[in-house]
Write a structure and sequence with these properties.
91 residues; 4 helices; elongated; binds zinc ion
Length: 91
């Protein structure tokens, strides 16, 4: 029997590929969060949470690169998909 180990070796040898996949997932979530928070704000203009919706809209909008790491500002709102991804990973 011949085991196919090409996928394992690619992910081990090429960390750039792994980082690229991670950034693609992050970008997908950002698009969802951006549209989601905009719709929430548009549909509920009289809501008490309008400021939270706006904060969620601008969540992780800019990245600052320093010391080999990228930093961003997060809103930490329960309805923000970006922040929920982070919270899920921490559990
Ligand atoms: Zn957020």
């Amino acid at each position: 029997m011949c085991k196919d180990t090409t996928n394992k070796t690619i992910s081990k040898e090429n960390p750039i590929k792994k980082g690229e996949e991670s950034l693609k997932k992050k970008a997908k979530t950002k698009i969802i969060a951006h549209n989601f928070s905009r719709k929430l704000a548009e549909k509920n203009p009289e809501s008490k949470l309008i400021k939270a919706y706006e904060e969620s809209y601008f969540c992780s909008n800019t990245y600052t690169v320093g010391g080999g790491k990228a930093h961003s500002h997060y809103c930490h709102r329960p309805f923000c998909p970006i922040c929920q991804r982070i919270q899920t990973a921490q559990i």
